[in-house]
Amino acid sequence: MQVYLPIAEVSVNALLILGMGGLVGFLSGLFGVGGGFLMTPLLIFIGIPPAVAVGTQANQLVAASVSGMLAHWRRGNVDVKMGLVLLAGSTVGSVLGVWLFGILKALGQIDLAINLFYLIFLGSVGALMLLESVRSMLRYRRTPGQRRKLHKHGWFHGLPFKTRFPKSRLYISALAPLAIGALGGFLTAIMGIGGGFILVPAMIYLLGMPASLVAGTSLFQIIFTTALVCFLQAFQNQTVDVLLALLLLAGGVIGAQFGTHASGRLRGDQARALLATLVLIICVKVAFDLMGTPPDLFTIAMRRGG
């Protein structure tokens, strides 16, 4: 079932896109991440231009995150105050990211920049997450059920503007979640991801939030951040393909519900290990495509007038 995407200017199999949306929605509900770290490379792999993949993926993340967040909301697993502080930071990061995206697109370097960002960030974060989760699982086997501190106090705990977050039982500087949110918003704009693969470990290990609240709170922030990025990308850079977005949305909403129900069957360290493994697999594929010899060495790209 082939459909033509007017902005991407390619024909794709609609059932394949629906299936990809369902898979990413499932991961969104399972891990509390937007799933863009997987969807954007997958879209590029099947021939969608990287700039369109990033801009359109932000649209799909909105629906997938809403679906997953509502399931967590019903369970009482969303810290709204923490989510709003993260959102304030992500708004600034999103605006800066879309601005830089437009500059790189005008220079003709956006495809290379997207691949390099994926290679650097996914490789670093994936390796660190996998290392930590393996250590955590080994400790669990040696001392099952033993309570341990979620985090150590670092220099950021001495920052000013201390704020109480009753739901998470935290009393920390608001600057820490603001900075984390800003980084997440920037990555959403540049890489077409929800930023959850940065937010989730940062909220657990830096902020010290209870693991039960992290996924829902992360998705709460991702909803508004991705909606803003989608609007800015469509208005400023014209890189949002509505037809592609609708196909991804349809699959993502359904998949997120299944992922949320499955999330309670994995321990935190097991879920992080699985997420890290997926991140590293995508990173290896991106690195191979970036450094490998292209199948066609002499391709002339025609630019639309503007």
TrEMBL record:
<dbReference type="InterPro" id="IPR002781">
    <property type="entry name" value="TM_pro_TauE-like"/>
</dbReference>
<keyword id="KW-1133">Transmembrane helix</keyword>
<keyword id="KW-1003">Cell membrane</keyword>
<feature type="transmembrane region" description="Helical">
    <location>
        <begin position="12"/>
        <end position="38"/>
    </location>
</feature>
<feature type="transmembrane region" description="Helical">
    <location>
        <begin position="242"/>
        <end position="259"/>
    </location>
</feature>
<feature type="transmembrane region" description="Helical">
    <location>
        <begin position="116"/>
        <end position="138"/>
    </location>
</feature>
<dbReference type="InterPro" id="IPR051598">
    <property type="entry name" value="TSUP/Inactive_protease-like"/>
</dbReference>
<feature type="transmembrane region" description="Helical">
    <location>
        <begin position="174"/>
        <end position="207"/>
    </location>
</feature>
<comment type="similarity">
    <text>Belongs to the 4-toluene sulfonate uptake permease (TSUP) (TC 2.A.102) family.</text>
</comment>
<feature type="transmembrane region" description="Helical">
    <location>
        <begin position="44"/>
        <end position="71"/>
    </location>
</feature>
<feature type="transmembrane region" description="Helical">
    <location>
        <begin position="271"/>
        <end position="288"/>
    </location>
</feature>
<feature type="transmembrane region" description="Helical">
    <location>
        <begin position="83"/>
        <end position="104"/>
    </location>
</feature>
<feature type="transmembrane region" description="Helical">
    <location>
        <begin position="213"/>
        <end position="235"/>
    </location>
</feature>
<dbReference type="Pfam" id="PF01925">
    <property type="entry name" value="TauE"/>
</dbReference>
<protein>
    <recommendedName>
        <fullName>Probable membrane transporter protein</fullName>
    </recommendedName>
</protein>
<keyword id="KW-0472">Membrane</keyword>
<keyword id="KW-0812">Transmembrane</keyword>
